[in-house]
Amino acid sequence: MKDNYLIIFLLIIAILFRGSIFNLLNNVSSYLISKDESLEVKVLNDKINRLYNEYNSLLDFKNNINIKEDYIITNVLKNNYGFGNLIIPDGDFNLNNEVINEEGLVGIISKKNNKTAEIKKTYDTNLIVKINNETGKIYSKDEDLNLIIKDVSNYNNISINDEVFSISGNYIGKVIKIQYDILDNYLTVRTIDFNNLTYVAVIKDGAW
Hints:
By secondary structure, the protein is α+β, with helices and mostly antiparallel strands. The chain has helices spanning 2-16, 18-64, and strands at 71-75, 86-89, 98-100, 105-112, 116-121, 128-131, 134-141, 147-150, 163-166, 171-179, 186-191, 199-203. The radius of gyration is 32 Å and the shape is elongated.
């Protein structure tokens, strides 16, 4: 019985103050909608800022590379620094196309998958390289990821800090050590930093 009285009392209150209750509900609804719109605007602004930063980063990359050949700029999807291949979106390029960034040669296209392609890093490529008027071949890397280059003649004019290029003319690095003897004959070359690669350029006619 008491419950019935309570229900009747609440109905009377609702009828008497229906205008105030309606205004209160309307204000709460407007507040929630306003909050939702503010959140949506913030998300949209964050997205715009991110796209703007990406555009500037891409523009800086394009301005900092200096090659005459036809090339395609793409982003790096996966970069296991020091381990495995780099992964990029598949595009209009071929196996063995050379890949560079602002600093120099990154590697070559080694595999094309369904929607992605793989870049074998420079130290795993066995590329023929040029040092001044001499040639050599990339054989391996040391523990610091410097290139080990062999098949270089003992009779040459190679010196420390001489620059090393691919046959296509892309910069690879500088000579930091020269080892000439009967048992082991090689050059050590400090190459580019493979960490934090965001964009690379695939040179379309840079196959070897």
